Amino acid sequence: MTPGKKDKKPGQFKAFIIILSIATFVFSLGFLPAIIGFLYIRIIIPFDQIWHFFLIPIFLFIGILVTIFYQILFSGLIVHLLNIKYEPGVYNYEYTNRDTLNWLIICNIYTPLRKLMGSFVIGELKYIYYRLLGMKIGENTLVGGTIMDPCLIEFGDNCTMGLFAVIYGHIHDTEHNTMFLDRVKIGNRVVIGAGAYIMPGAVIEDEVKIAAGAVVTKGQVLKKGKIYGGIPAREIIKKK
């Protein structure tokens, strides 16, 4: 066994414990309000009559909604308070690297909640959550689709992002075992069509329209007021 490999294992184990501890603490905290509520209901309703049992599905449904609400809120607050973010750059995909470690922590916390947000309508809570994770969102902006790296994404005012669109702030290069992280900047009055993909480093200037299913490539700049579509995204010129 080479010294590099020998030194790597303790770092991986330490990082694994950090990720597991934070994720366990966050998700356990999110369950507490529902558990406390259940214990309180158990005190006021003895469940000694048959009709009491018909209330169980209602309480279960309410408990699920409460749990989702607090899982999202508490996880966002903890990430914000602990300042768990990562910066643009190219990093070795190793647990000992701070930015990679923070990315892995966010993945473990954010990914399951991101999927929950796609299944339940939570309204303004979604935008509060994104901002707690470090995402910049302008006024009157509608964010649909999937945001993969909130702390690297910036939206201007009066933007619309369609369903199934995806914005990435990272590219994991498995061949070279590196992690590429970069910001995505979206200007004002931008429309992103359903199913579009936007890759790290993209800059979308004001009043750009991106057609459904288009792919904005790594580092691509879309010029102000133009319409783009296709794979990769190219300017669509209207015929006179």
What is the topological layout?
Blueprint: H1 3-44, H2 56-82, E1 89-92, H3 98-119, H4 124-132, E2 142-143, E3 146-147, E4 153-155, E5 160-161, E6 166-167, E7 170-173, E8 178-181, E9 184-186, E10 191-192, E11 197-198, E12 203-204, E13 209-210, E14 215-216, E15 221-222, E16 227-229, E17 234-235
Parallel strand pairs: 2-5, 3-6, 4-9, 5-10, 6-11, 9-12, 10-13, 11-14, 12-15, 13-16
Antiparallel strand pairs: 1-8, 7-8, 16-17
Helix pairs in contact: 1-2, 1-3, 2-3, 2-4
The percent range for helix content is: 40-55%
- Total beta strands: 17
What is the CA-atom radius of gyration, in angstroms?
A: 22 Å
Count the domains. Answer: 2
Q: What distance separates the N and C termini?
A: 69 Å
Shape designation: flat
Average pLDDT value? 89
What pattern of helices and strands is seen along the backbone? HHEHHEEEEEEEEEEEEEEEE
Largest beta sheet, briefly?
6 strands, mixed
